[in-house]
Design brief:
By secondary structure, the protein is of the alpha+beta class. It is built from six helices and 32 strands. It is extended and about 150 Å long. One of its GO terms (molecular function) is dynein light chain binding. Belongs to the dynein intermediate chain family. Keywords: Cell projection, Cytoplasm, Cytoskeleton, Dynein, Microtubule, Motor protein, Repeat, WD repeat.
């Protein structure tokens, strides 16, 4: 045990120095750890007054002393002789014998006596004291305080007079009448002056006004002509695309076994929306070539401004209308009866109505925190029929769990909560015995095409609620639809019982709202961003996934897989966000996260109609479409009914 060695390493590090100091870096706008730590520890320090000979201050002092010596030569000689004596004494060693010292001493004494006899005695000079280099003199002076002076003046009191008089009602009345007559006379004089001045001004400005009016008329005429010219130039530039849009039918579809393709047509992009994602697309109900695109961001850490653009297929190079907003746009919807009105929902929870007829870039009507708004992003807005007083009315759904009805009353948006999405079994015990209900986050909704009060709401929890406008406290039904957020829910345009939903859990499901389980389930191997029914067939729908693919299904031809799965966006970082069918033409438009909108034409296999048989007319119309979908649904329902 005694032989054990305990090594202790001494390091130059200070054990008390902190190791994890964090300072705020203004350059990078973040807290950064400091790598270097001051390890020096001072144990003793003393300020001295010694000066090095070689330093500047030492040299200056030696020069000063030499100049003083030259001025007083006598003193310096005495000093030097003393120095030499001291040096001689120092040079003599301790080892020398005492006898030698005595001999030297007698010798020196004899020399000194001879010198004294030869030279007369010199007057003794006072020794000069060395000046203290650190002397200082303190001087102070006191300023004189100015004596206080006062100046005052006394004014004479104003003269006063007492006045008294008695007045009866008649005198008061007469005084008022006189005053009124004076006012009327002065007004008449002013009127005559103003009229004369106006006449003179009209005469002067008459000529100028006519020229300005003619100029403004010319500008409007030119702008209309310029727009037509721009469209003609674009049609010539993209002539091959225009020809494909109008006439091209993919002949190779005949040789493909029920498979179809999407032919890319125009690509719509705008410089100012490059860094924004397409968050909403909607076709205009009146002008079939016009569509609106909302721009914002789904990356909630990078929220900024938003934009609303209106494009037409007649001019793919530049938008027809441009509106900018402070907050990102998350959804929009055109009014059916007033196609120039658009309802828009923003990321900050506000809603607004834009009027395309007005030239301003600001919305005509907008909600605010004072009048009421959502507390979370607005995910979808839908116009409804006008209310009893013929006021414009639309609904909105938000992550704050509220479905709100907005009515335009006297140029103001008035809101009323229709329903709150309370989640069952999530009541929490709050302070003082309060019951706290957690709200579901609404992400999408859709109103029934025929039953006015019925609507569906998709939530972030994956549930779909069937609700009524008239019941604000409870739901008509709840579907356990998906495992992740419901991105879109939509009623079939033909069949009144069927609706479709898609989710980030990679699935698209088709439902009958009277049955709790889905009729069809499709797994698309990637999160599904949007789904849309086609306007021409009850069995055709399209979905887009985040891996950049578009999928088109026709249940009438193939119930199990898509007729077309095509890559639309090539870049890895880019994702498709929305898809919409054109109401008339066989065209879909697809928006992505880079701010681009691509239009694609459906090949003949994707819009196949029933073939004509000899001697028989092909039946067309909603009844045929409903029957076609019912036939498919019966195939799915049959096993259940047998069981």
């Amino acid at each position: 045990e005694l032989k054990e060695e305990f090594t202790r390493i001494l390091t130059a590090n200070n054990p008390h120095a902190p190791q994890n100091i964090v300072r705020y870096s203004f350059k990078e706008r973040a807290y950064k750890p400091i790598s270097y730590v001051d390890q020096m520890a001072v144990h003793f320090s003393l300020n001295g007054n010694m000066i090095l000979k070689d330093s500047d201050e030492g040299r200056r002092q030696s020069i000063r002393l030499s100049t003083a010596a030259e001025k007083a030569p006598v003193e310096t000689s005495a000093v030097t002789s003393e120095d030499t004596e001291i040096k001689n004494e120092e040079s003599t060693g301790d080892t020398q014998a005492a006898g030698d010292e005595e001999a030297e001493g007698s010798g020196t004494a004899e020399v000194a006596e001879a010198a004294e006899a030869e030279e007369p005695p010199r007057p003794r000079v006072k020794e000069q004291k060395l000046a203290n280099q650190f002397n200082f003199i303190e001087r102070a002076s006191r300023t004189l305080n100015n004596p206080m002076r006062e100046r005052a003046c006394q004014s004479e009191p104003t003269p006063c007079k007492n006045f008294s008089a008695t007045a009866n009602q008649w005198e008061i009345y007469d005084a008022y009448v006189e005053e009124l007559q004076k006012i009327e006379r002065s007004k008449e004089k002013e009127k005559t002056k103003v009229q004369i001045a106006k006449r003179e001004e009209e005469k002067k400005k008459g000529r100028n006004l006519t020229s300005l009016e003619s100029q403004s008329d010319d500008i409007t005429k030119i702008s209309k002509a310029a727009k037509i010219m721009e469209r003609m130039v674009n049609q010539n530039t993209f002539d091959d695309i225009a020809q494909d849009f109008k006439y091209f039918e993919d002949a190779s579809d005949e040789y493909r076994d029920q498979q179809g393709t999407l032919l890319p047509l125009w690509k719509f992009q705008y410089d100012k929306t490059k860094r924004l994602a397409v968050t909403a697309i909607s076709w205009n109900p009146k002008y079939k070539d016009l569509f609106a695109v909302g721009y914002g961001s789904y990356d909630f850490m990078k929220q900024g401004q938003g934009m609303l653009l209106l494009y037409t297929m007649k001019n793919p190079s530049f938008p027809e209308y441009v509106f900018s907003s402070e907050s990102g746009i998350m959804c929009l919807d055109f009014h059916n009866d007033h196609p120039y009105l658009m309802a828009v929902g923003f990321y900050d929870g506000n809603v607004a109505i834009y009027n395309v007829k007005k030239a301003t870039s600001q919305p005509s009507y907008r909600s605010n925190a004072k009048s009421g708004k959502h507390t979370e992003p607005v995910w979808q807005v839908k116009w409804q029929k006008d209310d009893m007083d013929n006021n414009l009315n639309f609904f909105s759904v938000s992550s704050d769990g509220r479905i709100v009805s907005w009515t335009l009353v006297k140029n103001e948006l008035v809101h009323t909560d229709v329903i709150k999405l309370s989640v069952e079994g999530t009541t929490m015990q709050g302070p003082e015995g309060l019951q706290l209900q957690t709200l579901g986050c609404g992400t999408s909704f859709d109103f029934h095409k025929k039953i006015d009060y019925l609507f569906l709401v998709g939530t972030e929890e994956g549930k779909i609620y069937k609700c009524s406008k008239y019941y604000s406290s409870q739901f008509l039904d709840v579907f356990e639809a998906h495992h992740m957020a419901v991105d879109s829910v939509s009623w079939n345009p033909y069949h009144s019982k069927v609706f479709i939903s898609c989710s980030s859990d990679w699935t698209v499901k088709i439902w009958d709202h009277t049955i709790k389980t889905p009729m069809f389930i499709y797994d698309l191997n990637s999160a599904v961003g949007d789904v849309a029914w086609s306007p021409y067939s009850s069995t055709v729908f399209a979905a887009v996934t985040t891996d950049g693919k578009a999928h088109v299904f026709d249940l009438n031809i193939n119930k199990y897989e898509a007729l077309c799965t095509q890559l639309v966006v090539a870049k890895k970082k880019n994702k498709i966000t929305h898809i919409q069918f054109n109401p008339v033409y066989p065209v879909v438009i697809i928006g992505d996260e880079q701010g681009h909108v691509t239009s694609l034409k459906l090949s003949p296999n994707l819009r196949r109609m029933p073939k004509e048989k000899k001697g028989q007319e092909v039946k067309k119309g909603p009844e045929v479409e409903i029957a076609k979908l019912d036939k498919l649904l019966n195939l799915v329902r049959e096993p259940e009914s047998k069981a």
